[in-house]
């Protein structure tokens, strides 16, 4: 099992801070993330857990000031891309790594036709000139299921789902190696969500693109992800493949996430939300950041940050509940 | 057969119309909304008439013969068929001078505004987009200029550099710069944080491309409105300066200068002040009507 195929993205010990007047916001605190080639990696967590910050730091797009990447290594296909010059970074963005933003309503320029916007990406990264770019744009439009003749229209003439298709076409126009999707379906209604997810899944397989799927929706994770990382307060606290996370849940926080989902089999069952809120990132709790909200919290949780415990080659948990022995058996926590 | 052909024809026509409608750009949409506002269309028409008169004036009147040539035998005539607006104290036809005067006012007005628009726009875009220290330095300098009243500033410059059209234009352009810088800066600041700018950065666009391609086209609306209103202000200022003898030099016709020289004859020959005054008023009114209409047409909340 340990023959890990090539890594497309390898983040080690990433630390990102926002230095504001009110204090330092520790958005990401020593995060490790590995994405294998061709796989879809889910990054799951609550609002403010640092999901988007992680994604933006890969593209070096964090607003600065106040944001600053304090520490860590970001490797794309083995090559370090942290601290590259602006110019080199620009040739990576949209070409090797591209990003789909949360809200398609605002991520398209309202005064440009959509074909010009898609062609813009191609023009930046390929030397074909405008005409060739437009031809390719029409191909891309067909690919995402939009008639090319609508390319001359403006974003306000499209519906939300169609705009997200345009955004997907834009993101995939240069055949990126890695696609970062930041909650791509949050702004869409449920029927369109399914369509867009299927489309992304198909295109991803067609192009062999790797994908980082940022979401708070465990349904989406189950639908399209191969690997899942659960992020809490800027830290990966549990990581594994779908079977590991869904069927062998170990971390109390992950358990809490599942308990917050409505149960379709037992419709009378009450939701059990995780009590409390995300900790204030300017003043994180000592020890395990989840301990104030954790039902299983022990003395040691307030003092020491837990180490990684592996259940198998890939599935790990950062929690004091486990030692190398009982993690295999499970049974420490009870699912809803 | 006829019926079939007829039936075939109809949907394609409908489709064409539909496609035509769909292809309309924002600009067309703005024009569509502007058209609904009757007063601003009136303003636009008046401005177009004045502009075409100014352009055609060379064909209607001969500059040396009709506009600056003194003809004492015909001085101070009331409006008649020969001279619809009468003649002035030197026997020159007032209509001819007003039409030629529109050249001066409009050309100085528009060039000045274009100069201040471009320089103010660049400064405002830079300071709005980059923010921080650059923004602070640029905007404090603009504040200094803004603290000096425009007319006073123009008087100072003209007094220092001498009375000439070029100096007048320099003075007026400089005093217009901070206005545009402020407006462009504020609208760039609202646009630059919108997600599509971040998206543009995520596809590898550099700052220059982002500013030109994505930020400026989206922050134009308030600038267009300010431009029309600023032309009106400039025309008024020119008239005011010429009235004080600091504007355009004689014998070149200019509305403010005409008012100034007609002042002495106001009691007996009131038409001499009436017509240049009307010319100023109508032009300013038309520009303001257009500016107001544009503001409404460009405001997406009033869609």
UniProtKB/TrEMBL annotation, chain A:
Q: Which Enzyme Commission numbers does its entry carry?
A: 7.2.2.11
| Main localization of the protein described in the UniProt heading | membrane
Q: Give me the reactions it catalyses.
A: Ni(2+)(out) + ATP + H2O = Ni(2+)(in) + ADP + phosphate + H(+)
Which GO MF term does the entry hold, naming one?
Answer: ATP binding
Localization annotation? Cell membrane
Under PANTHER family, the record lists: NICKEL ABC TRANSPORTER, ATP-BINDING PROTEIN, OLIGOPEPTIDE TRANSPORT ATP-BINDING PROTEIN APPD
Query: Membrane topology type, per the record?
Result: Peripheral membrane protein
The protein, known as: Nickel import system ATP-binding protein NikD
Give the species.
Sedimentibacter acidaminivorans
Q: Does the keyword Repeat apply?
A: no
From TrEMBL, chain B:
Sorted keywords for this record are:
Cell membrane, Membrane, Transmembrane, Transmembrane helix, Transport
Q: How does it sit in the membrane?
A: Multi-pass membrane protein
Q: What is its main location?
A: membrane
Q: Enumerate the subcellular locations listed in this protein's record, separating them with semicolons.
A: Cell membrane
Q: Which residues form a coiled coil?
A: none
List residues of the ABC transmembrane type-1 domain. Answer: 102-291
Q: Does the keyword Membrane apply?
A: yes
* Bilayer-crossing regions: 41-61, 108-132, 144-170, 229-248, 269-290
Q: Which InterPro entries match?
A: BP-dependent_transpt_permease, MetI-like, MetI-like_sf, OppC_N
User: Keyword Transport on this protein?
Assistant: yes
- The domain of life is Bacteria
Task: Report the family membership.
Answer: Belongs to the binding-protein-dependent transport system permease family.
- Quote the protein name from its UniProt record: Peptide/nickel transport system permease protein
